[in-house]
């Protein structure tokens, strides 16, 4: 059974919808800048909670930022989906920190012994509340679930949605993820010593770490029956996916990239593609010394001697945690739609060990048939997705 991508929606530091995002991708416009709130470089969405709530016609003091960002992206992905059919739609959303931004407000209230009703703030803490908020506002009732596997969460939501379709349980599934910037994220990664005070440099010899970002993205997955029912248009196919959990370390990947290479091989096998048929890899590429070395080893293991063109688009958005797999899934779809590859910024010199060089300029007019997108999470949870141009799979 074929699984098609028929619609996409996104909000990130480089755009609050698909047209803005594509323009900034093509113009090599980063969304990373100094954030006065955290005194760090971040990829912040250029809309505050009040602006998001006003656009969505919601009270700003009720919903977490995760819910607001997620709802904005989800509504764009469903803009042509028949309202009467949303009650039977399945929805799988990923998040790492859920409503932690509102929980942090409660924390400071406690420290200052501020009195008042905190029930609403307390309720936003649980990760599933974000998903439930979005589902309720969109009137989705068919199936609602939350994925939280750190930085592979968004990709795992996409994979689970495809499995629901292939199992015959649903013909249409909305999948993706959302995560906000918050003190927990910023100071958590700083405590690990992997937050770069300069713009991140994925795969560069002198890389020092990541910059965090925020955002949300959702993809509508459908089979032929779902497309016939909703009159949707096919964009591309989700042909392959693979997940592994090597449990090498709580926060680090193995030097050999064992889990990453296994997830890529599983995705290739499911898609019935050879390594030589991958035209582009949207790498996880966080800019941390460990991740990029591990992913480089895995790419070499799977694709040598002919390494496909690859890049990390986290230079545009920052690392958006649970939303990363979904945001970069949307970027992969845009690459196929527009026959365009989006580059890594700030790369100067390859490592002596791996000698891999990502693309550093926008490449247009490329026949992008198959894109592999990697997302690797804490605990060794590794997920790879393959998106394919439709004529390549007939």
How is this fold's topology laid out?
Layout: E1 4-11, H1 18-26, E2 33-35, E3 40-43, H2 49-56, H3 65-77, E4 90-94, H4 100-111, H5 119-123, H6 127-138, E5 143-147, H7 153-166, E6 172-179, H8 183-191, E7 212-213, E8 215-222, H9 224-230, E9 236-245, H10 258-271, E10 280-282, H11 289-303, E11 309-311, H12 314-317, H13 324-338, E12 340-341, E13 363-364, E14 370-377, E15 381-388
Parallel strand pairs: 3-7, 4-5, 4-6, 10-11, 10-14
Antiparallel strand pairs: 1-8, 1-9, 2-3, 6-8, 9-15, 12-13, 14-15
Helix pairs in contact: 2-3, 3-6, 7-13, 10-11
Would you give an account of this structure?
The chain has 394 residues and is an alpha/beta fold. It folds into two domains: 227 residues, Thiolase/Chalcone synthase (Peroxisomal Thiolase, Chain A, domain 1); 153 residues, Thiolase/Chalcone synthase (Peroxisomal Thiolase, Chain A, domain 1). Helix content is 35%, strand content 20%. It is built from 13 helices and 15 strands. It has a ten-stranded mixed beta sheet, sandwiched between helices. Strands 2-3-7 form a three-stranded mixed beta sheet, with no helix packed on it. A hairpin with a 3-residue loop joins strand 14 and strand 15. Helix 2 crosses helix 3 and helix 10 packs across helix 11. It is globular and about 55 Å long. The relative contact order is 0.18. The mean pLDDT is 92.
């Amino acid at each position: 059974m074929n699984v098609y991508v028929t619609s996409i929606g996104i909000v990130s530091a480089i755009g609050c919808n698909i047209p803005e995002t594509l323009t900034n991708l093509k113009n090599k416009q980063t969304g990373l800048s100094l954030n006065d709130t955290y005194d760090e470089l971040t990829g912040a969405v250029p809309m505050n909670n009040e602006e998001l709530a006003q656009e969505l016609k919601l009270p700003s003091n009720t919903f977490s930022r995760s819910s607001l960002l997620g709802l904005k992206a989800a509504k764009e992905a469903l803009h042509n989906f028949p309202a009467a059919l949303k009650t039977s739609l399945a929805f799988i959303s990923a998040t790492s920190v859920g409503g932690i931004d509102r929980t942090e407000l409660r924390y400071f209230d406690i420290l200052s012994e501020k009195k008042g009703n905190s029930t609403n703030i307390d309720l936003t803490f649980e990760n599933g509340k974000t998903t439930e908020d979005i589902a309720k506002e969109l009137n989705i009732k068919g199936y609602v679930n939350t994925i939280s596997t750190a930085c592979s969460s968004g990709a795992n939501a996409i994979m689970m949605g495809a499995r629901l379709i292939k199992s015959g349980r649903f013909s249409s599934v909305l999948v993706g993820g959302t995560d906000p910037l918050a003190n927990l994220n910023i100071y958590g990664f700083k405590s690990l010593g992997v937050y770069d005070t300069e713009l991140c440099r994925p795969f560069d010899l002198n890389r020092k770490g990541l910059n965090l970002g925020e955002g949300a993205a959702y993809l509508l997955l459908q089979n032929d029956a779902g497309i016939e029912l909703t009159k949707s248009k096919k964009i591309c196919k989700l042909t392959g996916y693979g997940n592994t959990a090597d449990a090498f370390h709580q926060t680090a990947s193995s030097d050999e990239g064992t889990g990453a290479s296994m997830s890529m091989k599983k995705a290739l096998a499911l898609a019935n593609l050879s390594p030589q048929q991958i035209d582009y890899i949207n790498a996880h590429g966080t800019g941390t010394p460990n991740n990029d070395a591990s992913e480089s080893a895995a790419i070499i293991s799977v694709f040598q001697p002919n390494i496909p063109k690859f890049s990390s688009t986290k230079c545009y958005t920052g690392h958006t945690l649970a939303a990363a797999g979904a945001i970069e899934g949307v970027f992969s779809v845009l690459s196929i739609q527009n026959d365009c590859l989006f580059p890594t910024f700030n790369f100067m010199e390859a490592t002596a060990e791996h000698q891999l060089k990502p693309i550093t300029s926008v490449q247009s007019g490329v026949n992008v048939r198959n894109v592999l997108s990697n997302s690797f999470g804490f605990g060794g949870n590794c997920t790879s997705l393959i998106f394919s141009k439709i004529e390549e799979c007939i």
